[in-house]
Specification:
CATH class of the largest domain: Alpha Beta
Distance between the termini: 62 Å
Largest sheet: 7 strands, mixed
Number of domains: 4
Protein name: MUT7 Exonuclease
Pfam families: DNA_pol_A_exo1, Mut7-C
Strand content: 5-15%
CATH architecture of the largest domain: 2-Layer Sandwich
GO molecular function: 3'-5' exonuclease activity; nucleic acid binding
Keywords: Exonuclease, Hydrolase, Nuclease
InterPro entries: 3'-5'_exonuclease_dom, Exonuclease_MUT-7-like, Mut-7_DEDDy_dom, Mut7-C_RNAse_dom, RNaseH-like_sf, RNaseH_sf
């Protein structure tokens, strides 16, 4: 606003007997203020707000003020949002009769102006005296979730009420149409937004956002646990990639004493096991007899009370097969140190923080099984040439906080990542750093400070002249081909990693011996891969100067468009070299379909098939899969998630920046594919088409 205009406005106020009434006359007779942006009406209102502070005598009170307040309420329902605060302040609406204000908002509501009623309620802080279900339901039907969040944002009691209401709508047998039917004439009416699946996701996001006790929402929690149970049975009995110990641990922690889940567990046992096996598991978990199907209950009566020792020779042959088929840790067990106290970590830092040191870094966390938010690190592994340190991060952070020194451990971790003279090896390091930041707020800016990192995920992305993974998996007892780091270990070192402990409960203490060996192996193998690649990079299709291919910021993820495609990055020796970055949303250097790997959400299976035809490395969720599985696959295998709609909001928070892309679901597969290829600068040649098995 020009200074001249301000002066003219102020001269106008000074010449009026009642400037407050004068402003209302202007607004009521002008159509200019109804548009968006800073209208003349807005400029006059904000200038009057300042002028009143300098001339408090013009303020009105009593009956005169009440008449002005009645007039301004009629304007508030129509005016743009930026005029609300100045008008509420000028006419002291917070001092108006509360019942009068509530009546006015109720009038707006019954006219069908639900959005305006909610916004005015928020501005005047009327929510505690209103019915949260009545106010929020039409907003949800109009897909105004953000406004609903604002409505309950400052009131924990209303947050809890809202979540309880939404959970009630998710109750089995509840007919959501009973709620939606009365709003059928609503403009921008979207009843599909209130289906049980969408509501469940909304509840979990709000539980996390408002930090509300999940026990308030038993229906959505039970449904989520049931999906987890189904997933665990799939991993154990169909895919056969989860050990019995891990499976048992997760099933027990998922079901607990919940009788509803116990009943479903009994049914799942019947579906996947014979009667005898189902009865043994029922006995082991002490499932109530009344929960068991008739056949299982009968079999349980026939079982002996004592436990049998089961098939020890089988376990021995399995261990022997593991040694033959999988990469083995080449250092003695005594050189793996599990550290739980600050004093124990001092020996670790003395050895790790040495100039010229090469450190393999990995992290483990409890599988989320769809939990909202980023995972919290349970174990930090640091591997040196002769030993591996396993840091019990939750215990160490808890101890440091109890001693009033909670910055101590983050300080050393930052020192490690920011020292260009120490080479840090990882696989998908950006995801690990995001999880570290979620675990400890003091580590949030670590990603910006990293130097001297080597992210071996780049080798997987380049995939040039590596040996074919298509070997006889049946002979090695595998059900599925290797992927991720395991596949890289197989390419470079000859044998894959044994990933059976990957889905362990890493929060449970003490860790089992298998978990300790798995964690140490995951970090140590990075050292051997790096050594082998440094000796002979060209045989793996890499630059003869390995640093050009690998050294840089810890990411191969697509980044914000404004970021440079190539950047100066320190080498392990501390010198500067140019890192080959594939980090922009639309990189200047195009990539081939073979270098591009994605996981398609289940509403984009047509897109997935189309991209696969073009040679892209595609994994697709099945119709019955939960969207959370996409985030799990993306984190494990370094894939970009392709999704659409509401799942995008959930999934993008669970993976690194740029690793989740929202596709327009209303377009055909071809247009969607063109959108994806253009965004990630994937250039398709004739040789790429049908280059992958369909």
């Amino acid at each position: 606003v020009s200074q001249q205009l301000k002066e003219e406005i102020r001269l106008g106020f000074a010449g009026l007997e009642d400037p407050l009434a004068g402003l209302l006359d202007i607004l009521e007779s002008s159509s200019d203020w109804k548009g968006k942006g800073h209208s003349l009406g807005y400029c006059i209102a904000t200038e009057l707000q300042l002028w009143i502070k300098e001339h408090p005598a013009v303020q009105q009170s009593g009956i005169k003020l009440k008449k002005l307040q009645a007039r301004v309420l009629g304007i508030l329902a129509q005016c743009p949002a930026n005029l609300l605060d100045p008008l509420i302040s000028i006419y002291q609406l917070h001092t108006a009769d509360r019942n009068y204000l509530l009546g006015h908002v109720s009038h707006l509501y019954h006219k069908g102006d639900y959005k305006e009623a909610a916004i005015l309620s928020i501005k005047l802080k009327l929510q505690p005296d209103q019915d949260v279900e009545k106010m929020c339901t039409p907003l949800l039907l109009q897909d105004k979730t953000n406004l609903v969040e604002d409505y309950v944002g400052e009131y924990p009691e209303l947050q809890s009420k809202l979540l309880q209401i939404l959970d009630t709508w998710c109750e089995p047998g509840f007919n959501i149409r009973d709620i939606t039917r009365q709003y059928q004439g609503l403009s921008r009416y979207k009843p599909e937004k209130l289906n049980r699946k969408t509501l469940s996701k909304l509840v979990f996001r709000l539980l996390d956002q408002f930090n509300v006790d999940p026990a308030l929402c038993p229906n959505v929690i039970n449904q989520r646990h049931l999906r987890t149970l189904n997933y665990l049975f799939y991993k154990r009995f169909v895919e056969k990639t989860m050990t019995e110990e891990n499976w048992t641990d997760h099933v027990q922690s998922t079901v607990g004493e919940n009788q509803w889940l116990q009943g479903h567990l009994a049914q799942l046992l019947m579906s996947h096991c014979d009667l005898n096996t189902a009865a043994r598991w029922a006995q082991r978990w002490a499932l109530p007899k009344e929960m068991l199907p008739y056949g299982v209950a009968g079999e349980l009566q026939n079982l002996q009370i004592q436990e049998r020792v089961e098939e020890a020779p089988k376990a021995e042959s399995y261990d022997e097969r593991k040694k033959n088929n999988y990469y083995q840790l080449p250092i003695p067990r005594a050189n793996i140190h599990f550290l739980q106290t600050w004093e124990e970590t001092l020996q670790c830092w003395d050895k790790v923080l040495q100039p010229g040191q090469v450190v393999g870094i990995d992290m483990e966390w409890k599988p989320s099984f769809g939990t909202v938010g980023k995972p919290r690190v349970s174990l930090l592994q640091l591997a040196l040439k002769d030993e591996v340190f396993l840091l019990d991060l939750p215990r160490l952070l808890e101890q440091a906080e109890a001693e009033g020194q909670k910055e101590k451990l983050p300080h050393f971790i930052k020192m490690l990542y920011s020292d260009a003279a120490i080479t840090k090896l990882g696989y998908g390091m950006l995801g690990d750093l995001n999880s570290l930041a979620a675990t400890c707020s003091a580590l949030k800016d670590t990603e910006e400070q990293v130097q001297g990192v080597v992210d071996l995920l780049r080798v997987d992305k380049q995939k040039v002249d590596v040996p074919s993974p298509e070997q006889s998996y049946e002979n090695r007892g595998f059900k599925q081909p290797e992927k991720g780091l395991s596949l890289l270990v197989q390419h470079v070192l000859g044998k894959p990693l044994d990933k059976t402990e990957q889905l362990s409960n890493w929060e449970k203490r003490p860790l089992r011996e298998e978990q300790i060996l798995y964690a140490a192996t995951d970090a140590y193998c990075l050292l051997e891969i790096y050594e082998r690649l440094c000796k002979d990079p060209t045989s793996f299709g890499l630059s003869s100067d390995l640093t050009e291919s690998l050294v840089g910021k810890p990411s191969t993820k697509p980044r914000a468009k404004k970021q440079l495609n190539k950047q100066e990055a320190p080498s392990p020796s501390g010198q500067q070299c140019k890192g080959s970055q594939k980090e922009t949303s639309c990189p200047s250097t195009p990539i081939t379909p073979k270098e591009f790997s994605v996981v398609c959400d289940n509403m984009l299976q047509g897109l997935g098939r189309y991209l696969r035809c073009l040679g892209v490395d595609v994994r697709m969720l099945e119709n019955e899969d939960d969207h959370r599985k996409a985030a799990e696959i993306a984190r494990q295998e370094g894939r970009v998630i392709l999704t659409s709609g509401l799942p995008y909001q959930t999934l993008q928070s669970q993976v690194a920046e740029g690793m989740c892309f929202s596709v327009n679901c209303s377009e055909k597969a071809k247009e969607q594919a063109l959108q994806v290829l253009k965004h990630f600068n994937v250039q398709v040649s004739l040789a790429d088409i049908f280059s992958r098995c369909q």
